[in-house]
Amino acid sequence: MISLPYPFSKPFNKSRTDASPNSLKQLASLCDDPQVADFVSTYNNLTTRRERTPSSRFTKPNYTNYKPPKYPIILCHGLSGFDTLILIPSVRTFINVISNAVSYKNSEYFVMDETDNEVKKNVLEVEYWIGVKRILESKGCTVFITKVPPFGSIEERATSLNKILNTVVNQQLQTKNDKITKLNFIAHSMGGLDCRYLISRIPENEKNYEVASLTTLSTPHGGSEVANYVVGQFGKIRKSLNDNGPLLPMCYYQLTTYYAQYFNNITPNDPDVKYFSYGAYFSPKWYSSFALTWSIINYATNGEPNDGMVTVKSSHWGKYMGTLPNMDHLDIINWRNKFHDTFEQLLQNKKNPESILQLYVNITNDLAEQGC
């Protein structure tokens, strides 16, 4: 007698014990357990939904016909990006961020102390976009990697980004005949919100450049249910302490789905800027770094495809270019969880480490075709 492990404990139909199920539909027909039939129906519905997700343009580029964009590329990082991506902050960093949020209601104190030596060094060289700068420069692109306060508010980060860009333009991108310099932004996660604020809210007379395009990668334009959850949990702690002040940096509140509605109203698109966006989704294994956050979003949205931080739907802004399948929120910037990689190798299902870099070659080639 052939039987399935828990929770599918009932045996296959005895008249079909010689059969081996090679599809979910056949599995349901071979087993008398109604729980199996329910599982198959639910899984098929989810699969059908994913098949309707917009297809990805994540294909191998034609390097022979590649053309670099006309204007420099500016790479803008997301929340907690720094010299290295702060996945788990040090005790010192965590205490500084939280204590600043508790001690001050003025959001300017939510950023890290910029007198810190770690902030002062390598203002433009941040290893956040692993391999991206290298491959784009090898194709003839001019690329700059920017660094803004990792836990600052959108306004603070956008203001910091603007100051950095003014410096870069003055010192490294002088144009002939005093023509204004144009830039292409490629932004990951919260970085896309920083760029949108910079484009529409920072006055033109405070910029010595113009923005030609903004391409966002898994940016929560519609907010993130993970931020909703985190803010909600800290709200309970705040109430238990009888404290009316914030316990989190402002950026977490600004990433919620309800703040996104307000933010989108105050940051209209600039008609002179081209806007493009990409989303991503994956199904986590138990060892995935985003298994918990994926579950939070999955529960809150009734199964919307997501990358562990942002749903595909929330990623849409401007012209939607496609969805990246089997990519979590950090895979998109070529970060790979070493523990995850080890298991992928054992399962002989390892991704091509160069594959995600092809996306950036595609993006920049598209920008060139758009005249950017």
Automatic annotation (TrEMBL):
Residue ranges occupied by any DUF676 domain in the UniProt entry: 165-230
Pfam family, one: DUF676
Coiled coil (residue ranges): none
PANTHER family xref list: LECITHIN-CHOLESTEROL ACYLTRANSFERASE-RELATED
Family, similarity comment: Belongs to the putative lipase ROG1 family.
Protein name, entry field: Similar to Saccharomyces cerevisiae YDR058C TGL2 Triacylglycerol lipase that is localized to the mitochondria
Organism: Maudiozyma saulgeensis
